[in-house]
Amino acid sequence: MYCFVTRQLISSLEAIVRSVRSSALRRLSMRRLNETIQLRGFLTSPWGEVAVSAAGEGPISTTQPFVNSQIDACHPLPEPHVSGEREYSIALGGAFPKSGTPNLQSLVCLANALDLCNWFMKRPWPYGLVILIAFVTVCPGQTVETPKQKTEPKRANAQSVEKKISVEKDAGAIVVKYGNELFTRYDFSSYAKPILYPVIGPKQIPMTRNWPMKATQGEANDHPHHKSMWLGHELNGLDFWGETTGSVKHDSVVEINSENGSFSVKNDWVSKKDGTIICTEISAFRFGAVAEKKWIDATHTFYASHGDIHFEDTKEGFFAIRTHPDLRLSPDEKRGVEKVFGQAFNSQGTTGKAIWGQKAKWVCYWGPVDEQVVGIAIFDHASNLRHPTTWHAREYGLVTANPFGLHHFQKKEKGAGTHTVKKGDQITFRYRVVFQLGQQTAEELNRQFDEYVGNW
Questions:
Q1: Looking at domain 165-455, which of 1.10.150, 2.30.29, 1.20.140, 2.70.98 is its CATH number?
Q2: Looking at residue 329, what DSSP letter applies?
Q3: Residues of the chain with pLDDT under 70
Q4: C-alpha distances in angstroms, 320 versus 228, 244, 431?
Q5: How far is Cα 90 from Cα 31, in angstroms, rounded to an integer?
Q6: What is the pTM of this model?
Q7: 375 with 364: CB under 8 angstroms?
Q8: Lesser CB count within 10 Å: N end or C end of the chain?
Q9: Strand, coil or helix: 323
């Protein structure tokens, strides 16, 4: 066992050293992917200078893979940023910390340790392995700033502390925070379906309507089933959208991973009449944020666990948000909405009310809220059914991605949009909702969409 483990470690170290020795300079990319730290910066031979920059965002190009296939997590990134070069990302799991600055000098220590492995192997059991583990564990390292990316040291004050997404269970809900500030709350116990409410965007600006969860002056009290951000549709003839004959019941929390800013839950879609379960569904959410942008990645997988699932041909659905009233396209004075400031457009260049029923990769509503210009964009993942989807996007702030309502949207024969999932099968839908400051442009949203699809 000792020899097997040590030889496996030697094999991995040899893979690293062969790659490092083959070039005087490598460019790496670094980003956090799930629970694994990835590298970014510059690395020379282990017998030369090592430099690393742990700050910044976005991939850096590399001319060759840093490690070969003997290391499990060597993945080409989707698109090169520099002509003629191919991007790679590498993940070395426990070789680096899960938070803080990755220490490339530790990699050098591991590489240099290879020169001693043969000596370790010759020591009697278990002393060779103990010495090797001790060497790797205590090997000192330091982070050296790359000359091309020098930055001023951060001041030791509260503003220099990096905010992080945290996720924790609460009574009847799951709470998501960005730093110490509320991002959103997944309420699975108060209503006929789970909802995300409130949804707080950059600068602590509310992004969705409060009613009917909370009475607020200046908001229209229409469509009580439009609850902030939710999922709903008509399945097997039951109305889970309007909540008249169907309800979505929380079954269990599958996982909460605060380190990743994610959680997943299991729900049952149930007939209100007799409690019959129509299907089960797993909702998985992942949250992200930077200074002027927040986003929610939502993945919904439906399992035909109790028979066929029929997603009916209707405009009333599916993945939905009811925006802050200031982002409406038209006022409703009878319901107390006197002034609105919203604008809307989609990936096809269609603007205003005309986006309703149109097919598009994304839809965006934007305008001033609380004296700050903000936008809400919903991305329909390229893997989704009938992508690019049709949109039930109204002038009063309802925005839904709905691939089923072809009878209403495209004037096709009734039932043309119905989709059936056979018993034992499943179907998955993926969406990203982005909340960000500033006037929104098609060029920027297309860039973000491509990044979202490419990294999924």
A1: 2.70.98
A2: S
A3: 1-162, 456
A4: 8, 17, 10
A5: 9
A6: 0.67
A7: yes
A8: N
A9: strand
Give bridge partners of residue 86 from the DSSP assignment.
62
The single-letter code of the amino acid at 198 is: P
Residues ≥6 apart with Cβ < 8 Å to 35? 98, 257, 259, 260
**In terms of C-beta distances under 8 Å and separation of at least 24 residues, what long-range contacts does 117-120 make, across chains too?**
117/6, 117/9, 117/10, 117/13, 120/6
φ, ψ dihedrals at 81, nearest 5°: -90, -20
Question: What is the token pair recorded at 137?
Answer: 């564990």
For the chain, domain boundaries = 2-149, 165-455
3-state helix, strand, coil in the chain (%, to 5): 20, 35, 45
Q: List pLDDT tens digits, range 60-94.
A: 333 233 332 222 232 333 333 333 322 323 333 33
Give the Cα separation of 277 and 247 in Å (integer): 10
Could you tell me which of 30, 47, 157 has the C-alpha nearest to residue 103? 30
Q: What is the pLDDT of residue 161?
A: 55
Q: Which helix (H) or strand (E) holds 421?
A: strand 419-421
Query: How wide is the angle at C-alpha 254 spanned by C-alphas 248 and 255, nearest 5°?
Result: 130
* CB-CB contact of 46 with 20 (8 Å): yes
State the Cα–Cα distance between residues 166 and 65, nearest whole angstrom. 33
